[in-house]
Write a structure and sequence with these properties.
Shape of chain A: globular
Number of strands of chain A: 8
Strand order of the largest sheet of chain A: 1-2-3-4-5-6-7-8
Number of helices of chain A: 15
Order of helices and strands of chain B: EEEEEEEEE
Structural class of chain B: mainly beta
Number of strands of chain B: 9
Oligomer: heterodimer
Radius of gyration of chain B: 18 Å
Helix content of chain A: 25-40%
Strand content of chain B: 35-45%
Helix content of chain B: under 10%
Strand order of the largest sheet of chain B: 1-2-3-7
Largest sheet of chain A: 8 strands, parallel
Chain lengths: 395, 134
């Protein structure tokens, strides 16, 4: 079931390929085949020496005791096999998502995807590295790995500039280093236990804004490395609690971005909340608007209702898609969050909670479907828009 | 609606307010730095008693984290949900174009020379009943 039919909607043709636009997948997670060993060609010598990578090839060689481990959540997936789709195991072996050619076939070809943005697996907990210089060096090496070994294999594979929020100035330098690379679409961060709107983070937004790149935030850092749970009430018992509680994280960071005036200071900035759901955005908009009418005094630089600011500047990736029990709930919810502007499709391939583009958002208005599946992403990622339409995005 | 005498100027000093009932309306009258203003004593949000809230200034800003305290003594804050209104115009601070409270004109006038009359209202007899027109 192709998301579009010619009769239903006006098509957009990708000027760089001649292909009809179908899907921009805003969040995919290939995994480094050799764990930390995959970064050996890219991590400077001094860091390799520091973390015991020098001369080692794989995670199992690097990590026996007292040495570096890629930060990951303290909560493990309850099903053996962990967070990957078990039908996504590469035919040649290796971890799920580690064979980029298998990904190209099983995701891009099978679902007729025009562009997919590699967020990847291994950097999602980078803020869990307490040493801010190591944290930055890890992200930088990871970026070089992604651009060299993955994004270069297929014009459909795009990348983001991973940065660690542990040192926003180093992050800004990394953004300056890579912003002009043709495969780069965005800046990517994971949260830490500082709300992302605070001025501490502004060097990241200044650099992103200067390069006309959006900033995306993905989960996976909560309970990673030195990070606390980043949920309101402390450490839960189960992975299901942590994972279903991620809307809290998204809620607070969006609120912080709005209330601290990030979008007043950087009017061309867009902020993307990935993999934290989107139904909650309706409640956030209503509550923030109501509170702002009373408490505006505290944040007088917020001159418009927060819901307008969110509608203009914040985007939400669709996976894991909400699945209300009645179709009319879905329609109402998409209206309430202004999905025609704010929602962007993502598959999250090859994770266990992958959304198949053939099966999500059935029976919605064809124009809305186009907006969700690629048009909103074109407005969010000016470098993709430039490829597809030739226009400079007015981000 | 017509004109209603509120008080003598000497009985209504700067910074004072009076809540009065006129023609079935509760109205707050304010002396702001020597000029008089009046607002309906009903908040457009949920009907709270707007005019008994605190009178202050408010905060303005030209850029994030820069704050200026302005309009001291010119802002009435609803005692319920803290919506702020400009006493001089009745317009809300957060949305001056669309959210406002009714404002009434207040003037200072001299009594006519030798005028010792009291306010009078028309009284008629209709169908055997005495009717007061206010």
């Amino acid at each position: 079931m192709n998301p579009l039919t010619r009769e239903q909607a006006q098509d957009v043709i990708d000027a760089s390929t001649g292909k009809k636009m179908n899907i921009i997948d805003c969040d995919i997670h290939p995994r480094m085949p050799k764990g930390i060993g995959s970064l050996a060609p890219y991590l400077p010598d001094k860091w390799q020496a520091r973390i015991g990578l020098k001369g080692k090839k794989t995670d199992s060689e690097v990590n026996p005791r007292n040495t570096f481990a890629i930060p990951r959540r303290a909560f493990f997936h309850p099903h053996p096999g962990g967070s990957g789709r078990t039908d996504a195991r590469p035919p040649g072996g290796g971890p799920i998502g580690s064979d980029i050619n298998h990904l190209r076939s099983q995701l891009l070809d099978e679902h007729d995807i025009n562009y997919a943005i590699i967020v990847g697996q291994d950097c999602t907990g980078v803020s869990g590295i307490a040493d801010a210089d190591l944290s930055a060096a890890f992200a930088s090496a990871y970026n070089d790995f992604v651009l060299t070994e993955w994004a270069s294999t297929d014009h459909r594979l795009k990348a983001c500039i991973w940065v660690s929020p542990r040192d926003p100035q180093l992050a800004a330098e990394e953004i300056d280093r890579l912003a002009d690379h043709p495969d780069i679409t965005s800046v990517q961060i994971c949260p830490m236990d500082i709300p992302l709107g605070k001025r501490y983070m502004w060097p990241i937004y200044e650099a992103a804004s200067r390069h006309n790149l959006p900033v995306a935030m993905h989960g996976g850092a909560e309970t990673s490395g030195v990070n606390p749970p980043m949920l309101a009430v402390g450490m839960p018992s189960y992975f299901i609690e942590l994972h279903s509680g991620l809307p809290q994280v998204g809620w607070m960071h969006v609120t912080s971005m709005v209330c601290e005036g990030v979008f007043e200071r950087f009017p061309n900035l867009k902020f993307i909340v990935q993999e934290m759901g989107f139904a909650w955005v309706a409640g956030l908009m209503w509550r923030l608007d109501k509170e702002w009418r009373s408490l505006r005094l505290e944040v007088p630089w917020v001159k418009k209702p927060p819901s307008e600011i969110i509608r203009e500047h914040v985007r939400f990736s669709s996976q894991p898609v909400e699945e209300p029990p009645k179709p009319e709930f879905t329609e109402q919810m998409l209206n309430m969050i202004y999905a025609e502007d704010t929602l962007q499709f993502s598959s999250d391939y090859p994770h266990w909670d992958f959304d198949d583009p053939r099966h999500v958002f059935p029976n919605i208005d064809p124009e809305l479907r186009k907006s969700i599946f690629y048009k909103n992403a074109l407005e969010t990622y000016p470098k993709i828009k430039k490829l597809v339409t030739g226009e400079d995005g007015k981000n | 609606m017509g004109k209603h005498i509120i008080s003598k100027v000497s009985d209504f000093p700067i910074g004072e307010r009076k809540i009065i009932e006129i023609e079935n309306r509760s109205i707050g009258v304010f002396n702001v730095k020597g000029n008089y203003f009046a607002l309906r004593n009903i908040c457009p949000h949920q009907g709270g008693p707007l005019c008994i809230g605190p009178v202050r200034g408010t905060m303005d800003s030209q850029k994030p984290h820069q704050i200026q305290y302005v309009k001291d003594g010119e802002i009435i804050v609803c005692p319920w949900h803290c919506w702020e209104f400009d006493i001089l115009t009745g317009r809300s601070v957060f949305n001056p174009h669309l959210t406002r409270v009714k404002a009434y004109k207040v003037t200072v006038e001299q009594p006519e020379e030798g005028d010792t009359s009291v306010e009078t209202y028309r009284v008629t007899v209709e169908r055997g009943l005495v009717v007061l027109h206010v």
